[in-house]
TrEMBL record, chains A, B:
<protein>
    <submittedName>
        <fullName>Photosystem reaction center subunit H</fullName>
    </submittedName>
</protein>
<feature type="domain" description="PRC-barrel">
    <location>
        <begin position="12"/>
        <end position="84"/>
    </location>
</feature>
<dbReference type="Pfam" id="PF05239">
    <property type="entry name" value="PRC"/>
</dbReference>
<dbReference type="InterPro" id="IPR027275">
    <property type="entry name" value="PRC-brl_dom"/>
</dbReference>
<dbReference type="InterPro" id="IPR011033">
    <property type="entry name" value="PRC_barrel-like_sf"/>
</dbReference>
């Protein structure tokens, strides 16, 4: 098998498998799980994973949009890993589960800026 | 608002809103709905929408991976539109709901080739 073929093989994941996947930080702490993720309608590019964090049994938790590039999948853990100390989330952009932000440019910039990333659109 | 801002505003859709969305063809026939979609783990690029079609009340239906670029969203219809006559699906690559193909290069090529598209990876 060529390198290209190897790179592509099994490199896809189903949307409903991403949803619900546990998210850890580099310290191995469980931060929460991915509730859903935001996709650019036209290009099909995933822009944000929405981290569900806090609350108890999913009640009263908050949703935190994370730029997709922050997440890497750890096959050993069976979950996503982000380089994110828990207390960084204290001031992070969030919304209630039943709310959906507009995801306009201003919002996108504020999210990327919060995590020290350049907003690329 | 600049053109760029206008282009980006509201241009994102939540993964769980894509799932379940009705798919029509250009003749206005309801083909089925999107059961889920396949995402490139690394790049976050959506590659296939999986069309659930046939059967009765979701029982006995088949799943058809469609290259994402085939779909366009029609706000009037509130669903996706594909340029696809129903009988094209007769011979199209499909799998049972409980099966998940490997989505390796050979499979990807066969899907793209079936719909007359160039496999870009």
């Amino acid at each position: 098998m060529s390198d290209v073929a190897r790179e592509n093989h099994g490199d896809l994941i189903a949307s409903d498998r991403i949803e619900g996947t546990t998210v850890y930080n580099r310290q191995g702490e469980r931060l929460g799980h991915i509730s859903n993720f935001m996709v650019d309608k036209r290009s099909g590019q995933v822009r944000y994973a929405v981290l569900s964090f806090g609350g108890f049994l999913g009640i009263g938790n908050d949703h935190y949009p994370l730029p997709w590039s922050m997440l890497s999948y750890d096959t050993d853990k069976g979950g996503y890993v982000v380089d994110l100390a828990r207390d960084i989330l204290d001031q992070a952009p969030r919304h209630l589960p039943e709310e959906r932000p507009d995801y306009d440019d201003a919002y996108g910039r504020s999210v990327f800026h919060y995590y020290g990333l350049i907003y690329p659109w």
